[in-house]
Design a protein that fits this description.
The complex is a heterodimer of chains A (488) and B (222). With 488 residues, chain A is an all-alpha fold. Chain A is built from 17 helices and two strands. Classes of the chains: A mainly alpha (488), B mainly alpha (222). At the A-B interface, helix 2, helix 4, helix 5, helix 6 and helix 7 of A face helix 1, helix 2, helix 4, helix 5 and helix 8 of B.
Chain lengths: 488, 222
């Protein structure tokens, strides 16, 4: 039917998700900066009474950034690139359009509802899985809707072979579905009794050590299938599109993909080293974490080699800079993780600030950079306008890069300092420091981290401003840009 | 080539992913399930008041800064007491090991802190431990703990997982009404060791402020 004419893709859903990616990104990072400041200046805990303490706000930071910002970005990019790599417009199927609209609205309402319950302290108590059973049910429906829309689009595709990015989005869908379901198994107490107590409360199906195992199998791999898999899917699409270069090696893509699928999930138990989980599981988690370097670096190296012979683009196009920096941080963070998963290193690193340091060089340097680059690439093509300001983008790049470096260096030092002080003994073998000594010494690092947070947040506001201007008032373009994104 | 065929068949592609990602869970988690849930000899399930305290602990998310897991190192056993054993957690749903020690470990805090200490500390941590960056939790002195939900949880785990609660734990409202005085008596025992007049008065009136339940829970961590 449309064999000769270029396809008109329908970006209405991608646009909606783009708006809320920016919104949730801002909110999540704002709360993150506030709680970072609270650790340096505890008086800031009392701005909102019961609802403003570090402990109440921390799950809001993590959940809004993970399930608000990142997941919105996954959806936004899927609804953009899914059509393009499958060579089919969403508008060709009424069913897919309706499902996708429902997907968006239910997701948006669910995300807001979830945030409110966390603020009220309605929590199942599991890290990154705090939502109580009724929110979990909404999450399941949202996920099924996404699945329907994705499978539907794959079902009516014209391009028969699935492009690499689609592998990753598919894996994201399946992986999160499996992990989320098993980890959140719980019994609502209200329905298990004659309507006693709060209807919101439930109790975990697993106890103690088992619960810990399931939780970190989930927790680690929510990172895998939320922060790694779909983001790799993004870079496999957007880097070649932006640079005009073909992916360096198909075989390396294959190896990295299937390697990642197989190896990643074993590594969950490295969160439980030296705990009451059996030794063989801990060792297994440790060993597989080190093996994980292979598929992770496989993807990253594939990306860097894609730029082979075209490194001049790094100076000419700031978006290439974003993506190359993202791959580099991906490499840093995927070598750092395995180091922390070695049992003797973990003995010092676990429970310290080195862990949030590691998480943040991954998410701030890799995830957020890649998401912003993707949205920058999408905006001119969706809104038919060029990027509002290249200068702003350059400034933002350097501001945020500096912020990430400040963040992880301060947290590395803080973490190793604290880990060493906890175990320091004097010549008679007595502990040298009381616990509070190890807290007081961290103040300067917490202060530096706060500065880094503020800088990163300002950078994100610059991104948001640039995006909004691009959507509303930048110069219009008539033809879709082929590779390099046009910018003023 | 196999992979080229697979990439053209989304159903089998999705099936292949599902199989490949399931291995780890099957091999690492499933075999240990029965064994890891076995309680140590003197481990008993928590009382209803302690369970309500655990809910306060979760509501205010204490585990974002405190672990409940003492690792088998001399530096940890010197600081916190005996290292933790799997069976000690057998009745913990969810587990509350935490992942960060912004504050000290609490797995055996009941051995070395008292009701009185916690009361003062929760009102103003920096006064008790100079330099502390922990926020005060004053609202726990006025908010009421949800002891009915805690009872519902005890009954649920008894029926679903055979957690050894006594025969008086039943699904009915009548059973709860019968058990309630026992919870209030436990609360009174805690409140007797406290100074705060409002808390004492509330307990005398048959109410349980969050702080009372929380302290009962913290005292049970041994």
């Amino acid at each position: 039917m449309q064999s000769n004419a270029a396809l008109e893709y329908d970006y209405s859903i991608a646009k909606l998700f783009t708006y809320i990616t920016i919104l949730f990104g801002f909110l999540g990072m704002l709360v993150g900066t506030i709680i970072a400041a609270q650790m340096a200046f505890p008086e800031l805990n009392y701005l909102l009474g019961e609802y403003g303490t570090f402990s109440r706000l921390r799950p809001i930071h993590t959940n809004v950034v993970v399930f608000g910002f990142t997941v919105s970005a996954i959806f936004a990019t899927w609804y953009y690139l899914g059509q393009r790599v499958l060579k089919v417009s969403m508008a060709e199927s009424k069913f897919i359009m309706v499902i996708s609209k429902m997907h968006f609205w239910l997701y948006f309402v669910g995300a807001l509802l979830g945030t409110v319950t966390l603020l009220l302290g309605i929590s199942s108590g599991k890290e990154y899985a705090q939502f109580e059973w009724f929110i979990d049910l909404v999450v399941v429906v949202i996920w099924v809707l996404w699945g329907l829309s994705m499978m539907g689009l794959i079902g009516i595709r014209r391009e028969k072979a699935l492009y690499i990015s689609v592998w990753y989005y598919l894996a994201c869908f399946l992986g999160i579905a499996m992990l989320y379901l098993f980890n959140n198994m719980s019994i609502p107490t209200y329905f298990a009794t004659e309507g006693l107590g709060a209807i919101t409360h439930s109790v975990s199906m697993y106890s103690g050590t088992n619960d810990a195992l399931v939780q970190w199998w989930y927790g680690h791999n929510a990172v895998a299938f939320g922060f790694t898999v779909p983001i790799v899917g993004m870079i496999y699409y957007f880097l070649p599109k932006e640079s005009g270069q073909a992916i360096y090696s198909y075989k390396l893509s294959l190896l990295s993909f299937w390697g990642l699928m197989f190896v990643y999930l074993w590594a969950g138990s490295h969160h439980l080293l030296w705990s009451t989980v059996p030794d063989w599981m801990q060792t297994m988690g440790s060993a597989f974490s080190v093996v994980l370097i292979l598929p992770s670096w496989g993807s990253a190296i594939n990306m860097l080699l894609t730029m082979k012979g075209e490194w001049n683009q790094l100076t000419e196009n700031p978006l290439i800079k974003f993506m190359v920096l993202a791959s580099t941080f991906y490499m840093l963070s995927t070598i750092e993780g395995p180091i922390q998963a070695i049992k003797s290193v973990n003995a010092i690193a676990h429970f310290t600030d080195w862990i949030p340091g590691h998480v943040h060089d991954g998410v701030l340097g890799w995830v957020v950079f890649m998401v912003m680059a993707s949205l920058f690439h999408m905006a001119p093509r969706m809104f038919k306008r060029e990027i509002y300001s290249r200068k702003l983008m350059e400034t933002q790049f350097w501001l945020q890069t500096t912020a990430v470096v400040l963040y992880f260096t301060s947290m590395w030092i803080a973490g190793i300092t604290q880990g060493m002080m906890w175990r320091a003994v004097d010549e008679y073998g007595n502990l040298m420091y009381s616990f509070i000594d190890t807290v007081n010494v961290l103040h300067p690092y917490y202060a530096i981290r706060t500065v880094a947070g503020v800088m990163y947040l300002v950078g994100f506001i610059m991104f948001a401003y640039n995006m909004i201007k691009t959507m509303t008032s930048a110069r219009e373009i008539t033809e879709e840009p082929q590779f390099r994104t046009p910018m003023a | 080539m196999f992979f080229h065929w697979l990439e053209k068949n989304p159903f089998f592609f999705a099936a292949a992913i599902s199989i490949v990602i399931s291995f780890a869970g099957l091999i690492e988690i499933v075999p240990n399930f029965a064994q890891a849930a076995r309680p140590t000899v003197d481990t008993t399930p928590r009382t209803v008041l302690e369970l309500a305290g655990k809910e306060v602990y979760i509501k205010d998310n204490c585990m974002s800064c405190h672990s409940q897991l003492i690792r088998p190192f001399k530096s940890e056993t010197d600081r916190y007491g005996d290292y933790s054993l799997s069976g000690e957690y057998a009745y913990d749903r969810p587990f509350l090991w935490g992942s960060k020690r912004t504050g000290p470990d609490l797995h055996r805090v009941g051995n070395y802190r008292t009701t009185d200490w916690h009361e003062n500390h929760m009102l103003n941590p920096a006064e008790i431990v100079p330099g502390s960056i922990m926020p005060a939790y004053k609202h726990q002195f006025t908010n009421l703990a949800d002891i009915e939900t805690a009872y519902a949880e005890a009954v649920t785990v008894k029926n679903a997982f055979h957690t050894p609660y006594g025969p008086e734990f039943k699904r009915t409202r009548a059973a709860w009404d019968a058990h309630r005085p026992k919870v209030l008596a436990d609360a009174k025992a805690i409140a007797d060791d406290m100074k705060n007049k409002d808390v004492k008065e509330a307990v005398a009136n048959g109410q349980v402020p969050e702080i009372v339940a929380l302290i009962a829970y913290l005292n049970s961590l041994k």
